[in-house]
TrEMBL record:
It is found in: Membrane. Keywords: Cell membrane, Disulfide bond, Heme biosynthesis, Iron, Membrane, Metal-binding, Oxidoreductase, Transmembrane, Transmembrane helix. InterPro entries: COX15/CtaA_fam (IPR003780), COX15/CtaA_HemeA_synthase (IPR050450). Pfam families: COX15-CtaA. This is Cytochrome oxidase assembly protein. Pathway: Porphyrin-containing compound metabolism. The lineage of its organism: Bacteria, Pseudomonadati, Pseudomonadota, Gammaproteobacteria, SAR86 cluster. The keyword Cell membrane applies. One of its GO terms (molecular function) is oxidoreductase activity. It is a multi-pass membrane protein. The chain crosses the membrane at residues 78-97, 109-127, 133-153, 165-184, 246-264, 271-293, 299-320. One of its GO terms (biological process) is heme A biosynthetic process.
Length: 322
């Protein structure tokens, strides 16, 4: 079990890095930094010499080579591939050391899911950033992180226990609400709607701006030659952005109730951790708007969302633990 615990913890840390790299790739508009997959302009890494760059542009004349965009894409791919190697190691360890059947099944599923993530990475490029595929790929990163975390918790013998079984429904509701909120955040990023509203708390000076929900949440929209920078009009993007804001308010209310119930159930450490992560995430979201999406704040917003997800999963793990 110690091998499983160590590998799953390493995978958990690396999954955080992969999420950060994925956010970096999106934020610098490098989703098509390499127009092919798994290589980059036909190279194992990315072209650097003058001759290689010339050859790359001859191969893909419709995608002018930009090394500043190729680097994030390639780095993200290789770190994600290494995550797959960890998953393989987990499967081998589970069967080699004859661990319980449920852990064998779980590690196998984790490996399968990461392979699916690789497929989605390929489709992201081959389908020219099709929004539904990009959203699935980004959201899958959070699922991968959660799977590693659950495996780590399952292989940890001593976990602090609190008498909070009566909070099962509330903890589950909080987790579901957070998952919906993360999906909306991913959809916002996918459709380049993060800057659809440049003021706060209003949007274009109104608490109820003009919005187009039918196009904003059309999961099967056209991508044109590619979906780089998006194709939606402003009202559709405002609908996406505003939905993410309103959902954040609802999620905050649910979490406020959960945090208070945890506090008065003698689970103050859990309540405090959840509260600090929640306030940090809300602050980063506001800063993204006020300071016009600074790169490192936007990446931090993704990572703290992941931390909030793990903290909520921890609460649910403790609450539902038999």
């Amino acid at each position: 079990m110690s091998m499983l615990k160590g590998l799953s913890f390493f995978g958990l840390c690396l999954a955080f890095v992969v999420i950060a790299l994925g956010a970096w790739t999106r934020l610098v508009d490098a989703g098509l930094g390499c127009p092919d997959w798994p290589g980059c302009y036909g190279f194992v890494v990315f072209p650097t010499s003058e001759a290689d760059v010339l050859l790359a542009e001859q191969r893909y004349p419709q995608f002018p080579y930009e090394i500043n965009k190729a680097i994030p894409e390639v780095v993200h791919r290789y770190f994600a591939a290494f995550l797959g190697l960890i998953a393989i190691s987990l499967v081998v360890s589970a069967f080699k050391y004859k661990l319980p059947l449920r852990l064998k099944k779980f590690t196998s599923f984790l490996l399968f899911f990461i392979c699916c993530q690789g497929l989605f990475g390929y489709l992201t490029v081959s389908l020219k950033l099709l929004p539904l595929i990009v959203t699935g790929h980004l959201f899958g990163g959070f699922i991968t992180l959660s799977l590693f975390f659950y495996l780590y918790l399952s292989s940890t013998k001593k976990i602090i226990s609190y008498q909070i079984g009566h909070l099962k429904p509330l903890a589950a509701i909080a987790l579901i609400a957070l998952i919906v909120q993360i999906f909306l955040g991913v959809w916002t990023s996918t459709n380049y709607a993060s800057l659809a509203c440049l003021d706060f708390p209003t949007c274009h000076g109104s608490f109820l701006p003009e919005m187009d929900f039918s196009n904003g949440f059309n999961l099967f929209q056209e991508v044109g030659p590619n979906y780089l920078f998006g194709l939606l009009d402003n009202e559709a993007r405002v609908a996406i952005h505003y939905s993410h804001r309103v959902s954040a308010l609802l999620v905050s209310c649910i979490f406020a109730v959960l945090i208070s119930r945890l506090w008065f159930s003698n689970a103050a450490p859990l309540a405090s951790t959840l509260g600090v992560v929640l306030v940090t995430q809300i602050s980063l979201g506001i800063m993204n708007v006020v300071y016009v999406l600074p790169l490192y704040i936007a990446i931090a917003h993704n990572l703290v969302a992941a931390a909030l997800l793990l903290t909520t999963l921890m609460v649910n793990f403790i609450v539902w633990k038999k």
